[in-house]
């Protein structure tokens, strides 16, 4: 389960399908098919859900109509092809109240390793500030 939208409805994911379930009416509704979601690391912010896929793209899902919008592409930002053979990538995504924090580890071979901490707002705009107030979201708090 991802979380409750209100007292009667909650979201869950089954086989990359985002589902809204109304426990009072005992009805389930498919919202959308997720695009290669990575390990279930998602966040709900108002009427939107955010998730990172296996190719380094962050998507914003509008929960009222199921439309998905790519808001971040690590491959485009770092000017690399994520699924290139010989390129190993690891990304850890964390969410704070105001920011999406992506810790990237890009390995292009034995001697060419890059690690960066990339920070974006929830519109997908890269943040260039020097000081951040990163209060991390803790599910259930």
- Overall shape: elongated
Specify Rg, calculated over alpha carbons.
16 Å
Strand-residue proportion = over 45%
State the domain count: 1
Q: If helices are DSSP runs of H or I spanning 4 or more residues, what is the number of helices?
A: 1
Please provide the count of β strands. 11
Percentage of residues in helical conformation: under 10%
The CATH first-level class comes to: Mainly Beta
Strand order of the main beta sheet, please? 1-2-3-4
Distance N to C terminus: 16 Å
What does this structure look like?
With 141 residues, the chain is mainly β. The chain has a single domain, classed as Thrombin, subunit H, CATH 2.40.10.480. It has one helix and eleven strands. Strands 1-2-3-4 form a four-stranded antiparallel β-sheet, with no helix packed on it. Strands 5-6-7-8 form a four-stranded antiparallel β-sheet. Strands 9-10-11 form a three-stranded antiparallel β-sheet, with no helix packed on it. The longest helix is centred in the middle third of the chain and has 5 residues. It is elongated, with a radius of gyration of 16 Å. It starts with a strand and ends in a 21-residue tail after the last strand. The model has no long low-confidence stretch (mean pLDDT 82).
